[in-house]
Design brief:
This protein is of the alpha+beta class. The chain has 17 helices and 19 strands. A hairpin with a 2-residue loop joins strand 2 (71-73) and strand 3.
Length: 547
């Protein structure tokens, strides 16, 4: 899946020029019997909490909230999706919860020596009859093994000494939370209680805070890119135009003035950036337990690509083929798709995040399938492009093999210590040279028209996972996904029109180089054509006609 053109500002300098992010899907662990036994263990989450706590500065407290419930329409909600950070630290998959981590032990509700406190929604038989089982406080204590667990209604009266902390760290607070008038401790009220107890200033603006953090991190070494970025952002974010620190930096003309402006950041007890940076460091490198789940998600997705290759016929529709992918996921126990499946033929393959998937017949146009299973919260991201007829045309083959060569160049750059953009730079160069050779472009810089996104992003609990975007580190998992997209009307020979190709694999960075986790999905022209010639289990599967 192409990566974001608009990531979190803290990452934007490293990701500029990439694609819009899409939402991830949800894998949840409900309370109750007869559940899969291979979820992450409580000890995993406990270790993550302790590592995060150790990264906090002295005299600090960290506060994280569960994700809001999202409404789909009227009285129907989307399947609940826990905040990946909250899940990473707790394993808790229900809404209306708060996690508080203390750098130094505190007294909470009369219990001394507390370093971690989790406030969760209580058991409610009537609600559980309608929406499913809850852990409650006792279940959370037993299953999650957090040191201190209490009913979420006790958050407001827990006696946490907010005024005594030198630093209050928190994740950006959701602003689109509905108030359930029947629940005095829903997320709306939990957020209000935190603001009141911690005396959070009313004018705290997360966009301003992130801009200030960017200035701190890259105001001197990355000024050439940061200044125009902030200037553009100021046009759509009036709060930045009114912030003296940001404007002082933008008005600096010399290195000396800029250095003085960077050092002039106003002091504040409140910070929304420290948690993001610390969690990015942790989540970037996967533990062995995480890799077990991630490998399974990727292998399920690769098998899905195999089965669709065997099943595809020109008379089939995009939605039908999407269904085959997602049936394979369910068959192997993957709860969800990691993101909305992209199944596009012909001109639709040139729409980078095409998700309508409603073309009735794919015919003989190239079919791009960017699909990923999500297994116990960890998502794969695998793309293959195939000819529904079973054979690539000469023009299709030329573009396909150019993308394949670019991907091989990207693979070769996947080494620990290389800059994160190394695979992208290698792939971009191959694509530019190839498009020049084919006469599709006249100058190398024109290649961005046909390859407009980056080649890599992190993969994990989010399809565009959290990470530092610094040098590649052993244990991180990234995508390598070059593509070429030539929509109808492009300024080139018409024989190239409506050819869209992306080849994407999920790569584990190792101490020696890389491992392609999705290698079971055929990649080369010969492999794809050979597999498509084989029979499918769906060849004899027919449904009655609907009259």
């Amino acid at each position: 899946m192409p990566i974001s053109l608009l990531p979190k500002p803290a990452h934007l300098l490293l990701l500029a020029g990439l694609l819009l992010a899409a939402p991830s899907a949800q894998a949840q662990r409900a309370a109750g019997p007869d559940r899969p036994a291979d979820f992450l263990s409580p000890s995993f989450h406990k270790q993550r909490r302790e590592l995060l706590r150790q990264a906090l500065p002295a005299g600090s407290v960290a506060v994280l909230f569960a994700a809001p419930v999202r409404n789909r329409a009227n009285d129907v909600d989307f399947t609940y999706h826990q905040s990946p950070d909250f899940y990473y630290l707790t394993g808790y998959t229900e809404p209306d919860a708060v996690l508080v981590l203390f750098k130094e032990p505190q007294t909470v509700k009369g219990q001394a020596g507390v370093t971690e406190a989790l406030f969760v929604q209580p058991r409610d038989p009537q609600a559980e009859q309608w929406t499913g089982r809850r852990l409650g406080t006792e279940g959370a204590k037993q299953q999650l093994q957090v040191q201190f667990v209490a009913d979420n209604k006790e958050f407001a009266t827990a006696g946490i000494g907010w005024a005594g902390f030198a630093h209050i760290m928190y994740s950006p607070l959701a602003t689109d939370v509905r108030d359930d008038s029947r629940d005095p401790a829903d997320l709306y009220n939990l957020l209000a209680s935190f603001r009141q107890q911690a005396a959070l200033p009313a004018d705290v603006n997360p966009v301003v805070a992130e801009a200030q953090q960017l200035i701190q991190q890259r105001g001197l070494t990355g000024a050439a890119r940061l200044v125009p970025y902030l200037q553009n952002l100021t046009q759509t974010q009036p709060a930045l135009a009114q912030d003296a620190y940001v404007q002082g930096y933008l008005n600096a003309k010399t290195d000396a003035e800029r250095q003085k402006a960077v050092a002039n950041r106003p002091a504040s007890r409140f910070d929304t950036q420290v948690l993001d940076a610390a969690l990015a460091q942790l989540r970037e490198v996967k533990t062995p337990e995480e890799l077990v789940l991630l490998r399974r998600a990727v292998r399920i997705s690769a098998v899905g690509q195999q089965e669709v290759m065997k099943a595809t016929r020109p008379e089939m529709g995009e939605m039908e083929l999407q269904g085959v992918h997602e049936y394979v996921y369910k068959k192997y126990g993957a709860e969800f798709e990691g993101y909305p499946s992209i199944v596009g033929a012909g001109g639709n393959a040139c729409i980078l995040h095409y998700t309508e998937n409603d073309k009735p017949q794919v015919k003989n146009d190239l079919l791009l399938m960017d699909c990923g299973a999500e297994y116990h919260g960890y998502t794969a991201d695998v793309t293959r492009t195939i000819p529904p007829s079973g054979k690539f045309s000469p023009a299709q083959r030329q573009i396909y093999e150019l993308v394949l060569a670019a991907q091989e160049a990207g693979f070769a750059a996947c080494k620990p210590g290389n800059e994160f953009q190394a695979p992208n730079k290698a792939a971009q160069q191959v694509v530019a040279e190839g498009l020049l050779r084919l006469g599709i472009i006249k100058k190398p810089e024109e290649a961005r028209k046909y390859f407009p996104h980056g080649t890599s992003h992190y993969l994990g609990l989010d399809v565009h996972d959290s990470g530092t975007y610094g040098p590649l580190r052993a244990g991180s998992v990234i995508t390598v996904e070059p593509g070429i997209y030539i929509p109808e009307g492009s300024p080139c020979d018409k024989k190239w029109w409506n050819i869209g190709v992306r080849i994407e694999d999920d790569v584990l960075i190792t101490t020696m180089g890389y491992e392609n986790l999705s290698r079971e999905a055929p990649r080369t022209v010969a492999e794809v054509e050979s597999l498509m010639a084989k029979p499918s289990a769906l060849d004899d599967f027919t449904l009655p006609a609907l009259k």
